[in-house]
Amino acid sequence: MARSARQSKILEIISMYEVDTQEELVLRLKELDFDVTQATISRDIKELGLIKIPSSESGKYKYAFADNTNQTPNKYIFLLKEAVISLKTVKNFLVIKTLKGLASSICTIIDKFNLEDLLGCVNGDDTVMLIFANNEDSEYTLNKLENILNS
Fold first, then answer.
1. How far apart, in whole angstroms, are the C-alpha atoms of residue 77 and residue 75?
2. What is the pLDDT of residues 50-61, one digit of tens each?
3. Looking at the chain, which terminus has fewer C-beta neighbours within 10 angstroms, N or C?
4. Cα–chain center distance at 49
């Protein structure tokens, strides 16, 4: 499978589970029919800028996103460009169609943007819905995302 799909799945996995080793990540990806090696995962972790942080539940360290709210890593922009098929506003909602199976990853990336007017972000398998308080905020975010995708 393509690198972007694999890396999107890694983002999804670490947002859902407390993954503390590369080996665990390899196993979880293999369960999802990704044929990967530890060396590949090591490169992906570096490219995605993942870090290890203490888990509040188990006390062990787990993989997580580096919290850098001042800028969006280029890798996330690349994944957006690869996975997003279309964007459309419907009143105060922004609907994002993605490649099959990547909506959760895109939802996670959108959450990293820290959009101040975003009330919520929900997803299915290939659809993300962003909820705003009003139509203007959804249109503004549509324009912002289109600029990112077209850059």
1. 5
2. 888 877 777 788
3. C
4. 13
Compute the mean pLDDT over every residue in the chain, rounded to the nearest whole number.
Answer: 86
SS3 18: coil
Amino acid at 106: I
Task: Kindly tell me if the per-residue pLDDT of 85 is higher than 60.
Answer: yes
- Residue 67's pLDDT band (boundaries 50, 70, 90)? low
In sequence order, what DSSP letters do the residues of 55-94 get, joined into one string?
-TTTSSEEEEE---TT---HHHHHHHHHHEEEEEEETTEE
The three-class DSSP label of residue 11 is helix
pTM of the model: 0.59
CA dist., res. 147 & res. 130, Å (int): 17
**C-alpha atoms less than 13 angstroms from C-alpha of 62 in its C-beta half-sphere:** 18
Cα–Cα dist 53/6, whole Å: 22
Q: How many residues in total does the chain contain?
A: 151
